[in-house]
Amino acid sequence: MLVAIPDVLSPDAAARLREQIAAADWIDGNATSGAGAASVKRNRQLPENAEATANAQGQVTAALMDNAAFLSAALPHSVFPPLFNRYGPGEEFGLHVDNAIRFHSGSGARIRTDLSCTLFLTDPGDYEGGELEIEGSFGMVRHKLPAGHALLYPSTSLHRVTPVTSGERISCFFWLQSLVADNAAREMLYDLDQSVQALSAERGKTDAQVLRLTALYHNLVRRWAQS
Ligand code: NI
């Protein structure tokens, strides 16, 4: 399931964050690559232990934990501290799959990557190329979202970032372990939750059928969630 999460950051907040991190020192993007990805990755990344990274991570994590659509779609168990990358002309990240397990060197935490997420920080009008291409059951689909919007996609997917041909693309990316590992189960929960929210807005939370569907949603989460 691919889910676009609009307005994780407002356009102003995204621009401020982009300006803050753009001024920091960047390193070769292969610092966090698995062996397979390193050969196809040409970009730069903010060092994981830099002060600018910690500050930016705090802003992004707070915004995500306050976003109902993100929480409903991801059902997060553990979120890897967000990272930041930038692509200038000629830089790209070729077709790859994300590692199944990520270790965080700072905390020693280990997560299974169920979902990958890109939070776009540069407006699409400010760079050419740099689309996020993700392979799914309907073929390859290209994505380029407005600054402040995020895209959640299954970490099982093959994906790539096409070469930037002009301008610069700065983004935030991270992985997360979901309480519900199975993509199909998580997708059904998300669909059900969206419908319950819509019905609840029409009929009120205390409507008998809304209550029954709400109970069904929580009982399915109980059945499928792994803590
Ligand atoms: Ni990737």
Write the topology of this structure:
Layout: E1 3-5, H1 11-22, E2 27-28, H2 35-38, E3 41-42, E4 44-45, H3 51-65, H4 68-74, E5 76-79, E6 83-87, E7 92-96, E8 101-103, E9 110-112, E10 115-120, E11 127-129, E12 132-136, E13 139-143, E14 150-154, E15 159-161, E16 164-167, E17 169-178, H5 183-203, H6 208-224
Antiparallel strand pairs: 1-14, 2-4, 3-7, 4-6, 5-17, 6-17, 7-15, 8-9, 10-14, 10-17, 11-16, 12-13, 12-15
The structure holds nickel (II) ion.
Nickel (II) ion is lined by residues 96, 98, 116, 159.
Keywords:
single chain, 227 residues, alpha+beta, Jelly Rolls, DNA Excision Repair, Uvrb, Chain A, 8-stranded antiparallel sheet, 5-stranded antiparallel sheet, globular, binds nickel (II) ion
